[in-house]
Design a protein that fits this description.
With 146 residues, the chain is α+β, with helices and mostly antiparallel strands. It has helices at residues 7-15, 22-33, 37-48, 53-65, 71-86, and strands at 92-99, 102-112, 118-129, 135-140. The protein folds into two domains: 7-65, no CATH class; 71-140, Nuclear Transport Factor 2, Chain: A, CATH 3.10.450. The two termini are 38 Å apart. The mean pLDDT is 76.
Length: 146
C-alpha cells in the first residue's frame, strides 16, 4: 500500500523553513487534502521548477485548480442530481465525454413503479460544467450519440 505524502514535510523539504501566514496555510492545506497521491507527486514535480517558494505553491495551485473535473467528480454530481430530481440512486454511466468546457454524459437507470417493481430501463443525458459540476442541462428520455 502506498503511503500518503505529507504536506508539511514536502514543503519543508522543498523550501526549507519558510514562514507562511495562517490563512495561506489553511488554503494550501485544504487544496492538498483534495488531491490524490498521484496528483500530489505531480504537484511536487511542478513546485520544484518555480523560483520563489510562495510563488511556487500559488502558481502550481492555480494551475492545478483550473483543471477539469475528474470522472469520479462527474459521477458524484450526477448521483446527487438524480437523487434530488428523480429519487434515483442506482444508475450506470453509459457515455461520458469532456468536450470543451462541458462534460456530456448519458446514464441509464431502472425505472420502478410505486411498489418498487422494475418497469423498464430509462435513459437521460446531462451537460455539466467541467469546473464547477453545475448541471447545465438534464434531459430525461434522451441520450447523446457517439
Amino acid at each position: 500500500m502506498e503511503q500518503n505524502i505529507d504536506l508539511p514535510s514536502e514543503l519543508s523539504r522543498l523550501f526549507g523553513d519558510t514562514t507562511m501566514p495562517l490563512e495561506a496555510w489553511k488554503v494550501i492545506n485544504d487544496f492538498w487534502n483534495d488531491l490524490t497521491n498521484f496528483e500530489r507527486k505531480q504537484l511536487i514535480d511542478k513546485l520544484v521548477k518555480q523560483p520563489d517558494p510562495l510563488m511556487r505553491v500559488l502558481t502550481v495551485m492555480m494551475d492545478t485548480k483550473s483543471n477539469k473535473l475528474k470522472f469520479a467528480d462527474v459521477n458524484n454530481f450526477i448521483a446527487e442530481h438524480l437523487k434530488t430530481a428523480l429519487n434515483v440512486t442506482e444508475f450506470t454511466i453509459t457515455y461520458a465525454k469532456l468536450e470543451g468546457n462541458v462534460w456530456k454524459v448519458n446514464i441509464s437507470y431502472p425505472e420502478r413503479n410505486e411498489i418498487g417493481n422494475l418497469v423498464s430501463n430509462a435513459s437521460a443525458l446531462f451537460i455539466l460544467d467541467n469546473q464547477t459540476g453545475e448541471v447545465i442541462q438534464f434531459q430525461k428520455g434522451s441520450y447523446w450519440t457517439t
